[in-house]
Write a structure and sequence with these properties.
ten-stranded mixed sheet, alpha+beta, 22% helix, Alpha-Beta Plaits
Length: 254
């Protein structure tokens, strides 16, 4: 039995997130059904983590087991000949059995995109959050500094999140502005449910001068979700990359 690692890109607009569920079509379900068509095997496709309904990915990572002897390139071609156009497998590679798409992940990068001008975009309506009122980017950058580091992010956890610990570490949180576009780039070792979107929603309120820069620190220390801003819409969020330690290919000596 071989273990394969795949790199996936998808537009999450039409899906109820990554994980299979009873109330709507999920990315995982589509991939598993496609894999069964290719290999005639019913196998689970395990991702680095769940993305919520409407969230996109440029670099989602997943793994699965198969008895198929198809080469990685043959599997790549087979996947993309059968998948819908809003889901693409970008890379297939064989990995050792000890690799786990979720448990072996060390860092993830998310990007949140805002279009900030007087008129929306027809082409980017599903990939960016449109805000017409001007945002104070300088204030948002100053507020973001309070969130970098290792903290208890309870104040930014969505309802229903069940985890052993709400402590997470954000390596960097940068905000870039180019013309009418504002990009939040967040790198961390893991994220709570809705954490990035709740952080962005709070920083938007700072940019709108509804709350002060200093209040961001107060909200973080409160560990109270009701103190933070609203959850930013899913359409602006994209999983960019998932990082791992050095991966050994099958047959490589320790």
């Amino acid at each position: 039995m071989r273990k394969l690692k795949i790199l996936i890109e998808y537009d999450g607009t039409q899906y109820h997130g990554w994980q299979c569920q009873a109330n709507g079509l999920a990315i995982q379900e589509v991939l598993q059904k496609t894999l069964k068509k290719i290999t005639q095997e019913k196998k689970s496709v395990v991702a680095s983590g769940r993305t919520d309904a409407g969230v996109h990915a440029e670099g989602q990572v997943a793994h699965f087991f198969t008895s198929s002897r198809m080469t990685p390139r043959e599997l790549l071609k087979a996947f993309n000949s059968l998948l819908p156009p809003d889901i693409v497998v970008k890379k297939v590679e064989e990995v050792n059995a000890n690799f786990h798409a979720q448990k072996s992940a060390t860092r993830k990068t998310y990007r949140y995109t805002i279009l900030n001008r007087d008129f929306p975009s027809a082409l980017w309506r599903c990939q960016a959050h449109y805000i017409a009122s001007p945002l104070n980017v300088s204030a948002m950058r100053r507020a973001a500094k309070y969130l970098v580091g290792k903290h208890d992010f309870s104040a930014f956890q969505g309802a229903g999140g069940k985890v052993n610990s709400t402590v997470r570490e954000i390596d960097s949180l940068t905000i870039q502005k180019k013309d009418d576009w504002i990009h939040f780039n967040v790198v961390g070792n893991g994220f709570l449910k809705y954490m990035v979107r709740n952080i962005v929603g709070t920083l938007i309120q700072v940019g709108q001068e509804k709350i002060t820069v200093k209040q961001t620190q107060v909200i973080l220390q409160s560990r109270d979700r009701t103190q933070a801003g609203p959850t930013a819409p899913a359409r602006g969020l994209c999983l960019v990359t998932v990082k791992y330690g050095v991966l050994k290919t099958p047959g490589t000596k320790s």
